[in-house]
């Protein structure tokens, strides 16, 4: 038997919808089976919280008097992109404050960048805007400085080109020196293995063939509400798959959008990654409508069944060789140690599973309280294996 | 048995003398070097954890002071700003002791400062910079 999103929304509005998290659905399926779970449950909530470098925010800072067509601008000394209309700018998460020593004193600390600007803005702090222009007849102003806050600026939207990677590499270091990567500090000779996914709670791993997530899907974004805008950059669905279709390599991605007003720095946090750069940790939760039994079967996936590729970040990743050393499950990764080349390698995560849990529970609460209705996607995201059929 | 974390400041003229080694030989104390550095002005700084009998510890410290080395308890303290910690676990990869570990049920990072040897590796590795040094 199938359900439609409209039917599920009616149940949400009446306060009758049964909402469970992607963790809870695993136990439910184990106890009651797929068929019964699909009958009973209306929505499965997911969550993830981790550094997502391909993030940023469009801000319209309002017009100066006299008017100005901003050609260069800084927020708290972090350069922002100005190659669009007069007072629209884009804050990129990885942009560094001007005069930051970067990696000149290695490994650089990257204390304040675009991700921190976005966090400060959302936290309600006052930021210093500095802007320059060459001046035109219609926009004569050439220098402008003022304090800005989220409350005062006209518009501020988070618009992230690539978030919520469906699965990700486990990074290790085969060389004989410490390396500093976007996957954290990697000690030599397999000293540690760093991973970055919520695994069984991760949005796209719970809908592996993207049967329910599409353009216009309403989501939890940074503590507020957002939408899936498009598939993310580097979205790749021609990948090896396992079991219920979960990819065993980095695969699908999401581009997401949402109003910064209403978001919360707890779920939008500036990160400084030693020797690499600044980033933004983004919290995302996607509701999965239980349209049929296949949706439940896929969402019931467990860490034991989800595999990630182990990649060497001293040579193979930087050189793009594509070599995968091994595959390990998220259950192994989350145990604190994995076995690689005859060695017990301690694991560390860059993605916060406790916060992913918090997000999935929060979204569940919003839906149960009738504060959040599902949307029907305008169009599903591209997925070769769904469109052409797997196996 | 006592266990003390102390900071020793060596004046320039004492930097090249074997002073600390006598703690083991003559006073039966064990020590673990947590940090050692020599400043550009050639004054030495040594952070030690000393383990031994209370009486031996007192005699050993009296000897150290008699050499013109000043002793301070380790006031430098590593603390976690709980409001900033996102419980990702990036610190786990570098912590040399069990001071930072993951509670596998909650999947949260627990910080036990009794195990912390103030190596400071976590300070810069923490992405939201939740680990702080307090003097």
Low-confidence stretches of chain A: none
- Widest sheet, order of strands of chain B: 2-3-1-4
**Alpha plus pi helix count of chain B:** 3
Structural class of the helix and strand makeup of chain B? alpha+beta
Distance between the termini of chain B: 27 Å
C-alpha geometry of chain A: globular
Structure notes:
The complex is a heterodimer of chains A (391) and B (135). With 391 residues, chain A is an alpha+beta fold. Chain A contains eight helices and 28 strands. In chain A, helix 2 packs antiparallel against helix 4. The mean pLDDT of chain A is 97. In chain B, strands 2-3-1-4 form a four-stranded antiparallel sheet. A two-stranded antiparallel sheet of chain B has the order 5-8. Chain B is elongated. The model of chain B has no long low-confidence stretch (mean pLDDT 89). Chain B is an alpha+beta fold and 135 residues long.
Q: How would you sum up this structure in a few lines?
A:
The complex is a heterodimer of chains A (391) and B (135). Chain A has 8 helices and 28 strands. Chain A has 391 residues and is an alpha+beta fold.
Give me the secondary-structure topology.
The complex is a heterodimer of chains A (391) and B (135).
Chain A: H1 5-13, E1 19-21, H2 22-40, E2 43-45, E3 48-51, E4 56-60, E5 72-75, E6 78-80, E7 88-92, H3 114-122, E8 127-132, E9 143-148, E10 155-163, E11 170-172, E12 179-181, E13 184-186, E14 193-195, E15 214-215, E16 218-221, E17 224-231, E18 241-242, E19 246-247, E20 254-259, E21 268-273, E22 277-285, E23 287-289, H4 293-299, E24 307-312, H5 316-319, E25 326-329, H6 330-335, E26 337-340, E27 343-349, H7 353-368, E28 379-380, H8 384-388
Parallel strand pairs in A: 1-2, 11-24, 14-27
Antiparallel strand pairs in A: 2-23, 3-22, 4-7, 4-10, 5-6, 5-8, 8-9, 10-20, 12-13, 15-28, 16-17, 16-22, 17-20, 18-19, 21-22, 24-25, 26-27
Helix pairs in contact in A: 2-4
Chain B: E1 2-10, H1 21-25, E2 30-38, E3 44-52, H2 54-66, E4 70-73, E5 77-80, E6 100-103, E7 108-111, H3 121-125, E8 131-134
Antiparallel strand pairs in B: 1-3, 1-4, 2-3, 5-8, 6-7
């Amino acid at each position: 038997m199938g359900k439609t999103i409209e039917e599920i929304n009616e149940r949400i509005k009446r306060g009758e919808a049964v909402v469970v998290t992607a963790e809870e659905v695993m136990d439910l399926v184990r106890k009651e089976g797929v068929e019964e779970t699909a009958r009973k449950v209306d929505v499965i909530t997911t969550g993830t919280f981790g550094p997502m470098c391909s993030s940023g925010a469009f801000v319209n800072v309002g017009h100066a008097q006299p008017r100005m067509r901003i050609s260069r601008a800084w927020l708290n000394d972090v350069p922002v992109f100005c190659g669009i209309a007069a007072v629209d700018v884009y804050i990129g998460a990885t942009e560094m404050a001007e005069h930051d020593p970067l990696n000149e004193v290695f490994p650089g600390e990257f204390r304040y960048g675009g991700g921190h600007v976005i966090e400060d803005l959302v936290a309600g702090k006052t930021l210093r805007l500095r802007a320059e222009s060459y001046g035109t007849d219609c926009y004569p102003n050439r220098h402008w400085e003022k304090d800005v806050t989220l409350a005062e600026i006209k518009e501020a939207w988070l618009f992230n080109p690539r978030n919520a990677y469906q699965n990700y590499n486990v990074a290790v270091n085969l060389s004989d020196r410490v390396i500093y990567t976007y996957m954290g500090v990697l000690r030599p000779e397999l000293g540690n293995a760093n991973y970055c996914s919520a695994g069984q709670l991760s949005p796209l791993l719970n809908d592996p063939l993207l049967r329910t997530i599409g353009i216009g899907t309403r989501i939890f974004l940074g503590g507020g509400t957002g939408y899936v805008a498009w598939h993310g950059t580097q979205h790749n669905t021609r990948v090896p798959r396992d079991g219920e279709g979960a990819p065993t390599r980095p695969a699908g991605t999401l581009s997401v959008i949402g109003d910064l007003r209403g978001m919360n720095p707890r779920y939008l946090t500036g990160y400084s990654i030693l020797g690499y750069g600044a980033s933004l940790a983004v919290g995302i939760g996607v509701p999965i409508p239980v349209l049929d039994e296949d949706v439940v079967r896929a969402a019931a996936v467990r860490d034991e069944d989800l595999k990630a590729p182990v990649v060497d970040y001293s040579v193979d990743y930087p050189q793009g060789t594509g070599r995968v050393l091994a595959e390990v499950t998220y259950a192994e990764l989350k145990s604190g140690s994995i076995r690689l080349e005859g060695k017990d390698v301690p694991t560390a995560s860059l993605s916060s599973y406790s916060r992913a849990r918090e997000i999935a529970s929060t979204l569940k609460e919003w839906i149960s309280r009738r504060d959040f209705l599902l949307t029907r996607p305008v169009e599903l995201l591209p997925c070769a294996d769904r469109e052409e059929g797997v196996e | 048995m006592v266990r003390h974390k102390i900071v020793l400041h060596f004046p320039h003229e004492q930097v090249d003398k074997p002073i600390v080694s006598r703690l083991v030989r003559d006073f039966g104390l064990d020590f673990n070097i947590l940090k050692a550095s020599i400043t550009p002005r050639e004054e030495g700084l040594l952070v030690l954890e000393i383990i031994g009998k209370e009486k031996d510890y007192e005699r050993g410290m009296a000897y150290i002071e008699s050499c013109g080395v000043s002793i301070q308890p380790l006031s430098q303290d590593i603390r976690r700003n709980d409001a900033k910690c996102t419980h990702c676990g990036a610190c786990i990869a570098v912590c040399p002791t069990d001071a930072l570990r993951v509670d596998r049920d909650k999947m949260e990072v627990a910080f036990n400062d009794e195990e912390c040897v103030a190596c400071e590796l976590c300070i810069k590795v923490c992405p939201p910079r939740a680990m702080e040094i307090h003097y």
